[in-house]
Amino acid sequence: MSARFNLMKENAEVYATLGKLDTLGRESSIPKDLQELIKIYASSLNHCAFCIDMHTKEALENGETVQRVMGVNAWREAPFYTDKERVVLELVEEVTFIHQHGVSDAVYSELEKHYGEKEIGELYLLITTINAYNRLGVMSRLQPKVDK
């Protein structure tokens, strides 16, 4: 499959605006390891190969374990995620598939046990931004470089 167009080249202003949202998310109080798990899981749900490749590598470079990176798609069955991480991964799923039933009261109630309103807003921003990147990547068929 070949890429359709280069978003960064053809729509630089749009891409830069999305980049500002991404920067706000990266600078949030959400731990970097959780930020990367959010990005890997959403990218996997959206089938964005470019973003999966990029965020998996970033997570590993930042000290995340191979086990947690590889297991994120089976987080419900895997024993190596905290309850605080699990509710975020469930939120990622509900936001990514928001058309199905929105964000459930059960997930929101569980979020409130672990995070304050500011942090919940930061999580929403992180999840929304990666979903936007994923959709742009999939639509434009953005391709990761093949490792050698």
From TrEMBL:
<dbReference type="GO" id="GO:0051920">
    <property type="term" value="F:peroxiredoxin activity"/>
</dbReference>
<dbReference type="InterPro" id="IPR004675">
    <property type="entry name" value="AhpD_core"/>
</dbReference>
<dbReference type="InterPro" id="IPR029032">
    <property type="entry name" value="AhpD-like"/>
</dbReference>
<dbReference type="Pfam" id="PF02627">
    <property type="entry name" value="CMD"/>
</dbReference>
<dbReference type="InterPro" id="IPR003779">
    <property type="entry name" value="CMD-like"/>
</dbReference>
<feature type="domain" description="Carboxymuconolactone decarboxylase-like">
    <location>
        <begin position="14"/>
        <end position="94"/>
    </location>
</feature>
<protein>
    <recommendedName>
        <fullName>Carboxymuconolactone decarboxylase-like domain-containing protein</fullName>
    </recommendedName>
</protein>
